[in-house]
Automatic annotation (TrEMBL), chain A:
Protein name (database record): ABC transporter permease
Compartment(s) of residence: Cell membrane
Family classification: Belongs to the ABC-4 integral membrane protein family. LolC/E subfamily.
TM region(s), chain numbering: 28-46, 239-258, 296-324, 345-365
Domain ABC3 transporter permease C-terminal: 245-372
Organism lineage: Bacteria, Pseudomonadati, Thermodesulfobacteriota, Desulfuromonadia, Geobacterales
The species this protein was found in: Geomonas paludis
UniProtKB/TrEMBL annotation, chain B:
PANTHER family: ABC TRANSPORTER ABCH.1 (PTHR24220:SF86), IMPORT ATP-BINDING PROTEIN (PTHR24220)
Domain ABC transporter, chain residue ranges per copy: 2-228
Name by which UniProt lists this protein: ABC transporter ATP-binding protein
Record's keyword terms, sorted: ATP-binding, Nucleotide-binding, Transport
Upper classification of the organism: Bacteria, Pseudomonadati, Thermodesulfobacteriota, Desulfuromonadia, Geobacterales
Automatic annotation (TrEMBL), chain C:
Domain of life: Bacteria
Organism encoding this protein: Geomonas paludis
Record's keyword terms, sorted: Membrane, Transmembrane, Transmembrane helix
Protein name: Uncharacterized protein
Transmembrane portions of the chain: 7-32, 52-72, 103-122, 134-157, 192-211, 218-244, 264-284, 304-325
Length: 377, 228, 332
């Protein structure tokens, strides 16, 4: 046992010395390998972080949302639906919500306007999300102006700037009073954007939804679990798609690695020949090659992962966020909370280290089976 | 004693470029004696050395090492025997560039898993015995031809082999260094090491070092073999 | 088809492992047909060199199969909410009939790779390649299984359809939209616990008997295999209850979650190690008089038996601790 460990130690020592002696060749390989891992890891970490953000947002959302469609398009919901739907057995409460998007032409940004159920700002006042406040350069007490649906600018006083755990939730948010919002957006007084229902017993979802659709044929009830599921599928799909695209890069890398591994330089061949001639076995050379691959993979994996972590969570994935975020390139910038889990790391490992290792099995074996008497010929 | 019975080594068998490097050689090599394999280049000396030194397996015939047949042992057993029984000195020094003389000397012992400190001590002692201990930490490319040859001999001795196998050791040495090399071999011989040298260098063949001189031509023995 | 990064990773790794195993298997067939240890021909020398390649391949297969096994469960766990009614990995796996067979195939290939490496290790101790034929027959068995696993897994993930919102209709519902999936079917907890301990004791006893007196290798191997199955059922039926401290949560997969300190990983590793080394003792036993193995095999079998015993005791000990210190009581 002690001999086994010593043998590994000697061979690792020699491997590391060998790697350092060929800085040029191994450095190039390491650089490309690290880059590939960096790109893949960034895609993975970023989409996963966004997905979690979205989940966090939705966790807060109501169990059932009722929308109305007309000719397949969303429409505002008549306030009169509230009473009818609220009286269905099992529905705790049915509340109308007022909210919508607003495109700011001068600053080229999208904001979400919302009338909060609790503690709405008074008339003529708004609360701003962090990113909106930054964009407008506004602090508490300042006056900000937005152009209403009729083209007329409206001024509001900032009551406060929102700071919350999930930046995605509040970054682009503008909270406003109901009265101001109706004037600003032109939603009639008897209409709401949608209805939210509180339902205590999950077993009753099915019956309630059925009753709502029977009551109003143009109603479109949506369950929170369905939204979660859809978001999840969309985000996973998006990152999967990115991975597929980048796998072309991985493939190119594998060809490169194969080439490096098979194209043993004359010097390397001679060295392995010497080692075999002076008493190293094929299994010793295989061990040498194993440690060589491990050292390269581990370095590239750690470096690539750490760089990607910094890239995604400290620079907000500045390099390719526009492609990945997708829903709006105009979305105000926000920072993702750092997060890393086992599954992401293993996925990354399987997508990069496993193919690399398998690519190098046969070339390593070829190198290891050079005849010991080759140096004498 | 190493006995070989009617061994042959054929390369590219069955193809148009088939070569019989060694064809039906029988030979006994006695322990603690020196054997010289002599003959022109291409006579099969090197291939025969490789077969004796467990570097390659014969295409036919049998090899016994101290009464034990080793002909068709799996490679890992042959390597093990090679490591513990034989030390090799090659025509070129075949040292690895970029690492020190000391590390080169220690290389053959790495797979045995000996403790680093013991190994290092032994390597230093071996280099001292050959008078090159001052060059232990020097990289190979900084050594002179004579120093490199001595380091190569030290590497062959690191695992305390019973048999030294040398293939044209003086081919790249001048007369002075060749005589030095013969001196080292005499020293080893006096300590009881078995030596097998393949060479057609007159300095070696006429050095009165050998108890047995075997002449090879075209893969066959033409003179000098003693058989048990 | 769900294009989840983890799924992509699983498909890629299985494909690669499947291909390389087939490649190794091709040379395995050549070895079975043309192996002749007495020959010094170039073909024989080349085949002997190939054995190094094949054992390297199987080593990687074992390592990567283990990673892939755990990732499969992790992925199943992270996508369960895509399926109405699923509560954890178990729900994902039962979303299509291929879910569990894929898991079983992964386990089997891992297991066989372990056994193969034990045979290989024994073979390397002998100087006349004593186990070359059994070893490569086993490899022939492994190749179709890895291929089957690759295909089953690919089909499983391709046909899985998440229940997502579609734009044409508001709500998708099926019959168990209530959100409460049925618990996993399992035997009654307390009798199962008794069976688990009985089997542990009997297996340990036969193991000790083999270790001390070299008797009953097959019995020990058989009991190890049986105990493996019993342990898995016991985990589902009763041990998991104590770990989750919930009287009706029969799930072998939630153990792998962070909420339970990833206890599943070491536990399953120990169970697998016990089974592979225990069965390994029996697999080696018929060859104890073959060729040069007589000298080396008993020591190797002893090592395996010791490993299996240690792993068995660790698992039983850990399970007992968990049961004793759990706040759940099934007796009341």
């Amino acid at each position: 046992m002690a001999h086994m460990i010593e043998r590994h130690r000697h061979i690792i020592d020699f491997t590391l010395a060998t790697l350092l002696r060929r800085k040029g060749k191994n450095g190039g390989l390491l650089l490309v390998y690290t880059l590939i891992i960096f790109v893949l890891a960034s895609v993975l970490f970023f989409t996963e972080a966004i997905r979690r953000e979205a989940m966090l947002v939705l966790q807060e959302s109501p169990e059932i949302i009722v929308q109305r469609t007309q000719a397949g398009r969303y429409q505002t919901v008549p306030m009169s639906w509230c009473a009818g739907i609220g009286s269905i057995n099992g529905v705790g409460s049915a509340q109308p919500r007022l909210w919508g998007y607003h495109y700011d032409r001068t600053r080229l940004a999208n904001y979400t306007f919302m009338v909060p159920a609790q503690d709405p700002p008074g008339a003529g006042h708004v609360d701003l999300g962090g990113a909106v406040a930054r964009m407008l350069g506004a602090a508490t007490g300042d006056t900000v102006a937005f152009q209403g649906h009729d083209g007329a600018p409206r001024a509001f006083t900032v009551r406060k700037v929102l700071e919350q755990e999930s930046q995605l939730l509040t970054a682009d948010l503008v909270l406003i009073s109901e009265q101001d919002y109706r004037l600003f957006s032109g939603v009639p007084a008897d209409q709401a954007t949608d209805l939210v229902l509180q339902v205590r017993n999950p077993r009753e979802y099915a019956t309630i939804v059925e009753k709502i659709t029977r009551m109003h044929h143009d109603a479109r009830p949506i369950l929170r679990s369905e939204i979660l599921r859809t978001y999840d599928a969309v985000f996973s799909w998006r990152s999967g798609l990115m991975l597929v695209i980048f796998s072309a890069a991985t493939l190119a890398f594998l060809i490169f690695a194969w080439d490096k591994a098979t194209g043993l330089s004359a010097e390397e061949r001679a060295e392995i020949g010497i080692l075999k001639a002076v008493g190293w076995d094929t299994s010793d050379i295989l061990l040498l090659k194993f440690w060589e691959g491990t050292a390269i993979s581990l370095t590239a994996f750690l470096a690539g992962t750490i760089l990607a972590y910094l890239h995604v969570f400290h620079t907000s994935a500045s390099l390719f966020a526009p492609v990945l975020k997708g829903w709006s390139t105009l979305y105000p910038s926000f920072r993702l909370p750092p997060l890393l889990d086992f599954q992401q790391v293993v996925t990354l490992f399987i997508l990069t280290v496993v193919p690399y290792t398998i690519t190098t099995i046969v070339p390593s074996w070829r190198a290891a089976t050079i005849d010991p008497d080759a140096v004498m010929r | 004693m190493i006995s070989i019975h009617n061994i042959s080594k054929v390369f590219n068998a069955g193809r148009p470029n088939e070569v019989t490097a060694v064809g039906g050689v029988s030979l006994d090599v006695r322990m603690e004696q020196t054997t010289i394999l002599k003959g022109p280049s291409g006579s099969g000396k090197t291939t025969l050395l490789g077969l004796i030194g467990c570097m390659a397996r014969p295409s036919a015939g049998r090899i016994f090492l101290k009464q034990r047949e080793i002909t068709s042992l799996p490679e890992r057993f042959l390597t093990d025997i090679r490591r513990t029984t034989f030390g090799f000195i090659f025509q070129q020094c075949n040292l690895i560039k970029g690492i020190t003389a000391l590390e080169n000397v220690m290389l053959p012992a790495y797979p045995t898993g000996e403790k680093f400190s013991t190994l290092r001590g032994r390597a230093q002692a071996t280099l001292a015995m050959l008078g090159v201990e001052k060059r232990a930490e020097a990289k190979i490319e900084w050594l002179s031809g004579g120093e490199a040859q001595r380091v190569a001999v030290a590497r062959a001795l690191i695992n305390n082999p019973a048999v030294i196998i040398a293939d044209e050791p003086t081919a790249h040495l001048d007369t002075k260094l060749s005589l030095e090399f013969i001196g080292i071999m005499r020293e080893l011989k006096s300590r009881g090491t078995t030596i097998i040298i393949a060479s057609h260098d007159p300095i070696i063949c006429e050095s009165w070092l050998a108890e047995q001189v075997v002449e090879l031509r075209d893969g066959r023995i033409v003179a000098g073999a003693t058989m048990s | 088809m769900i294009l989840h990064p983890g799924i992509l990773a699983l498909l890629v790794s299985s494909l690669l492992m499947g291909l390389i195993t087939l490649y190794a298997c091709g040379y395995g067939i050549l070895i079975l047909r043309r192996w002749d240890i007495t020959s010094g021909s170039e073909l024989q020398l080349a085949l002997e060199r190939r054995t190094y390649l094949i054992s390297t391949v199987v080593r990687y297969l074992l390592a990567f199969q283990l990673v892939s096994l755990f990732l499969y469960l992790r992925v199943a766990d992270s996508i369960y909410h895509l399926f109405t009614g699923a509560m954890c990995a178990a729900g994902t796996l039962s979303a299509h009939w291929l879910g569990y067979p894929t898991l079983l195939l992964k386990l089997t290939t891992f297991f066989l790779a372990g056994i193969w490496l034990i045979l290989n290790h024994a073979d390397e101790q002998g100087y006349d390649y004593p186990l070359i034929r059994p070893k490569y027959f086993l490899l022939l068995l492994m190749a179709p299984l890895t291929t089957a696993e690759t295909v089953a897994q690919a089909v499983f993930f391709t046909v899985l359809r998440p229940d997502v919102i579609t734009s044409c209709c508001g709500s998708l519902f099926n019959n168990n939209a209530s959100g409460i999936g049925p618990g996993m079917a399992s035997p009654p907890p307390l009798p199962m616990l008794a069976l688990f301990y009985t089997s542990s004791i009997v297996t340990v006893m036969t193991g000790l008997r083999f270790y001390r007196r070299k008797k009953g290798a097959y019995l020990f191997a058989g009991l190890s295999a049986l105990h493996f199955a019993i342990t898995l059922v016991a985990v589902v039926s009763v041990i998991s209850l104590y770990i989750y401290e919930l009287p009706a949560h029969h799930c072998p997969f939630c153990l792998l979650q962070g909420e339970y300190d990833y206890a599943g990983y070491p536990l399953y590793l120990v169970i697998l190690a016990a089974a592979v080394s225990g069965v390994g003792v029996g697999v080696l036993h018929p060859f104890r008089h073959r060729g040069s193995l007589g000298e080396t095999l008993p020591a190797l079998q002893n090592k395996l038996a010791a490993t299996a015993l240690a792993a068995l005791l660790i698992f039983s000990g850990a399970a007992t601790c968990k049961i004793l210190y759990s706040s759940l009581s099934l007796r009341g």
